[in-house]
């Protein structure tokens, strides 16, 4: 399904796909009417955004699919800590069935909290709460943890939460796709929304005027199942001839391209749908016992049943120092005022 949608929204579509997109345009109008009405309710005060007692940074996108939000959140956590802040994170917890809010603790299975929250906490040990209602998640986070700034993982369209800074993340290769709103295209909001955010980060490729280039740099390969005891010294990565690569992220081809750039050749590459709940049977059916290479986001879903020859590749977001300076300066200014806004509403 994800492959079909990607071809419809992002690829240089055939005549059949273009005709299908045009046929869906009336539904785009309905989607626009619903979202525009919702924004209007906030603008005229019928609905109100809740301001938190600490600054809130929203990291999100206006397109469906992976753009690099999770590496950006991890980057922000580390950046804010270097500047003396005590960040906490809230997120939806995509694909997890629960009521209210839930704290995410290190080691919790991805099936209980979502793959992205599990990955963020595993990497950073940041205080984190998930919940469909970001305002409730923020209140729970502030009540349970000593944090002085909140990062909202996704939530650009969650206008009930007032925000002090908005970061829009764009996939540099796919950008806005065919430019249509859902369901004919990938846009959750019109391209005008980019003009309302504080910063636009472009993940790879070239950025345009007013945008900041973000590059994901590959770190060292890590075993999905860390060796124990004397085995620690044996955890040395090398590519086996029959290795296979898997990726269950928004843009799997980005991971496969990274392998090519690293000079790694695999026997097979298999893309799962984003957030696919990986099982041992899923991977065995593809690998048949061979070495498996995967993303960090996939690895957190495999920790309980991983084999010794499964490896994942962490990536780190790198952005120009000038962006860091501008972000921190703007944050300090907003913090002194302690007055949120409703960007884009």
Q: Give the class from helix and strand content and strand pairing.
A: alpha/beta
How far apart are the termini? 32 Å
User: What is the 3D shape?
Assistant: globular
CATH topology of the largest domain: Rossmann fold
Strand content: 15-25%
Which CATH class of the largest domain applies here?
Alpha Beta
Q: What's the structural domain tally?
A: 2
Rounded to an integer in angstroms, the radius of gyration calculated over CA atoms is 20 Å
List how many beta strands DSSP finds.
14
What is the annotated CATH architecture of the largest domain?
3-Layer(aba) Sandwich
- Summed over residues and divided by their number, the pLDDT gives a mean of 91
The major pleated sheet works out as: 9 strands, mixed
Element order: H for helix, E for strand: HHHEHEEHHEHEEEEEEHEHEHEEH
**CATH homologous superfamily grouping of the largest domain:** P-loop containing nucleotide triphosphate hydrolases
| Continuous helix count | 11
Q: Spans with pLDDT under 50 lasting ≥5 residues?
A: none
Oligomer: single chain
Family: Belongs to the LpxK family.
Keywords: ATP-binding, Kinase, Lipid A biosynthesis, Lipid biosynthesis, Lipid metabolism, Membrane, Nucleotide-binding, Transferase, Transmembrane, Transmembrane helix
Catalytic activity: a lipid A disaccharide + ATP = a lipid IVA + ADP + H(+)
Pathway: Glycolipid biosynthesis; lipid IV(A) biosynthesis; lipid IV(A) from (3R)-3-hydroxytetradecanoyl-[acyl-carrier-protein] and UDP-N-acetyl-alpha-D-glucosamine: step 6/6
